[in-house]
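Protocol check, entry for the methods section draft. Step 1: assemble the input record (protein sequence plus ligand SMILES). Step 2: submit for complex structure prediction. Step 3: store the structure tokens unaltered in the notebook. Ligand used here: zinc ion. Step 1 record:
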Amino acid sequence: MATTDRQATTLALAHALSAAERGLAVIPLSRTKLPALRSPHRDDPEPEGPPCHGACGRFGHGVYDASTDPVRIRELFAAAPWATGYGIACGLPPHHLIGVDLDTKCGTDSSAALRELALRHLFTIPETVVVLTPSGGRHLWLTGPPDVVVPNSAGRLAPGIDIRGAGGYLVGPGSRTEHGVYAAAPGTAHLAPAACPPALLRLLLPPPRPARPGPPPTGDHGRGLVQFVLTAHEGQRNTRLFWAACRAYENGLGPALLTPLIEAALDTGLTEHEARATIASAARMTGHRP
Ligand SMILES: [Zn+2]
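Step 3, stored output:
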């Protein structure tokens, strides 16, 4: 077991170093796909100002630790000898990587959803690096223009399609997680990540904020989101709740829809604890306070 883990770490480091050679900044990941190094500030009181992103000089700032410097990468892995994978930071120069994460969980056909989006918005998915995930999903690697910040989003384009942008990371090919190994799809490992088609890029940018402050009435849109949760059957309940809560927060309806969404979730059989946790992660994912 110990030997296997050490081999997994050595292998992850080797893959991470070769990604770095291609200009991709990396961090060590644990088997859970989370950054392997815990925050040195985890026991600190809540900071008054913005959180530390590495100014303290220690490791453990998640994606902010990411580097293309082989010396620093070796130091990061030396500090995390339990790492079995590596994450590639998105949104950083020179590639300004954008990850399109096509999930297959909960019965969503996210590849079909992406094809449908492509038809509707008249773009084609270019030939690019594709990483196969152990759960049968796929990550498409695209590059963005340097002057555009693509935010992370989950299920905003369609259920099952997550976007990894600025502040996000992709599990790199060659990583081992508790669910299995991530691997480049045959024939794509040595491609350069292709430029994101402009029509797709437009869909990835955040919607304009409502001009009028104050809680807007939830209206038809709010009712539609609640209905979307109510009609979920088992296996989709969390995904649907998450998706609806993300849309609610993006449209400034998060606080107003909190109670209706929880009630709808309880109606489908989720527990209040599960519902609150899912809505809180939707809030965080869309940059709001839960
Ligand atoms: Zn710090």
